[in-house]
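Technical note accompanying the year-one report. For the benefit of new consortium partners, we illustrate the data format agreed upon in the data management plan: each record pairs a sequence with a structure-token string. No post-processing was applied to the example shown here.
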Amino acid sequence: MKIERKLSNKKMTEGKTRNVILVIAIALTTVMFTVLMTIFSSISDSQQKEEMRLNGSTSFATIKYISDDDYEILQRAFGNGNVGYRLFISSQINNESLSGPPIEMSYMDENYMLTHFCTPSVGTVPMKENEIICDSKTLEEMGVKAEIGNTVSLEFIMRNQLYIIDFKIAGIIQSDAYSRQSIIVSKAFVDKYATELENTYLVDGEYSGVRMMDIKIDNKIFPLRYFTDKLNECGYTMENQTGNFLDASINPAYETQVSVDISTMIGIALIVFLLMFTGYLVIYNIFEISITQDIHFWALLRMIGTDKKTIIRIVRHQASMLMILGIPLGIVIGGVLGNILFPYIARTTTINEGYYQYGIKVYAILFTVIFVAMTVYYSAKKSVRTAVSISPVAALRCTDGEVTIHKKKRKVKKGSLEKLAAANVGRNKKRMILVIVSLSISLILFNCTFILANGIDREKYLQSKMKSDFVIGNSNYFNVNKHFRTNDDALDEAVINEINRQEGFLQGGAMYACTPMGESLFEYPDWEQHSETDKDGNQYIRISTGARYKSNNGMLSCQLYGADDYVLSNFEITEGTTDIEELLRKMGSGEYIIMSAAGSSEFAVGDTVTIVLDGQKYQYTLLAKMNRGRTEYCQFTTNGFCYYLSSDKLRKISNATLMNYSFDAADIDQMGKYIDSQCCNEWLSMSYISAKTYYTSFDSLKSEFWIVGTFMSVVIGVIGIVNFVNVILTSIISRKKEIATMQSIGMQGKQLRKMLCTEGIIFSLSALSGSLALGVVLIPLVSNVFAGMVEYYAGYITMTPMIAIWIVYFIVSIIVPVYGKQIISKDSVIARIRQE
């Protein structure tokens, strides 16, 4: 074993240049996969964290309406550190200054506070009965300065009785855009009001005293199976509402939600395969040439009695040493580059910057290490087996990997340097094919990253955000915390009149909404077939997506909007009538209605839709379905069911509230300055957004796509070029004895240089031909995948980048052979002929 390592180390010392190229190839392949895995794992973690923040919990599951006995049993099963406890006090806080969404008062243990983002950023957990934790937004609304020790007077109802109590602030939760307003009392408070907080929900439906618990599951491959198995072991079930049923809900952040069509999945799989195959070919080609270069050395070892297994172990040791150098270097560089690039890519998603998760997961490193290690070992093992499979005598005669012993005799033909170069390239057909394929794939991948970076279209991006030049409304309309909800959030009609009188105004239209939001009803079709009733008699309807909505004899809440003709004409119709004139005419008749595409799978165009307002039923024919993803239409609603009438018809049947006004202008800059001035000085409660806002956003997005795309293109291009350089150099170096023989019989230096350059040019031309042939099929497919993944991708197809990088290949194919000739010419012709 010691001799094997000594031989291996000595051989590595002799081939320093070759080993440097091998380490670079291994490192570059590792960099490529580390960057990809770092970015993908960071995006996945960031999306999960943001969704947890939106859902208000990091726990795996929440169980409601439990008894104290249930809690103790489950606490023992899952462990003290993995469960959190909450006791509900009240959601009826009657302070006049608190007019927004209901604020919940509860007792929470420290685990529950931690998983629900309720741990105080300032102060401590309340200990005394008159101490609380409160969020900064609630304190601001009540006019109380957010300082520890300040007094807060709260009026709240607990078990149908009004309480007015002065509390002292023990801790403060810093509110943000996703925070839920909360008031947390102490255990001493719960003990004092133990009678009022008895758990009687299953008897009388009283929420005061309801117990809940959170369960955290970490480091489990199948958390849902683990969770249900634990429940079953404790004698509980969440599958039906009989026996020891627990009302458990799984945090959506832990649920995999994938919605891609089959062509997109195939395309993504193809891209991943091409990347992996490229990495494999780069490493394999270099090892194959390197092992072949030493075939005489392996033959001499065989002649003195070394067996095949020993030679394989020597090569494996060399591969291990190269990996020890290349893989860590690649992981470090890839990890750094991945974290640098991650924020640029993340900004192209909907992830809030505050929830970016940097770093690299252990599984990402393991995947990269395993893939590269397997590739290196497989490449080394396969190459050395080829080398040791022939006899030592035949191996000593081999040049450039030509190991075939029995060959037909060929007639001597009048040749030329070009023919000789072509024969040299085709001497080892297997290697020739692998090299050409790897170079071709590198060119195609370079081209694909370029078209993604340059294929996003400004107009498609703007169309996905807003159709008009401006949208103006109450500031709450654009506020992520408040939203448009009531008449208090209405747009002033005087604002519309002033805008219409401005020079440069072209056309516009208003949108109206029934308020308060979510109080309109509609009759769900065939609701009896989808109806469910829980143990408390509450009726629900479960739709095809699996979502469940509370029902009252088939009636579900919805949001009803009214749109002027200008707005209707800008609707992005996904199904149904698309002719604008016909759509406006039918909507004006008052007999038709349009539905948002979200949650509409149970409805077909032409179905009858029954809307209920103030107890009065109105029937309409579904004319079309539309995508409500633009700024003009996308507002808060209690669920995904949104319907649109013409504004005139809605105003006739309800007290509709003016929600927003969208319009076009001849000069966006001039109109923008006017509106901005008015909102700062006259329309103080109003706000607006313009197309120019999205133009700026698009420019930033495009630059981020360009940075990422350019980086990936450079990495892939460098890998391809390094592979190409290595192929040419090692081919020349491994044939130095053969080349010396040709020089000894009269080949001049100029002729040798021409032959070697011709070999390089043949490789580069073959790579171009292969990439063009494959590109005709693969590039349009990849472009379609991008179009399915990025809605504002314009289907940009070009092969110019591939040809541009091929020019670099062509230059390399001329320069590198000249350099290779200089390397082998350092030794005299006689010295090279004598070398074994």
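Partners are asked to follow this layout when depositing records. The CA atoms of residues 231 and 799 lie 58 Å apart.
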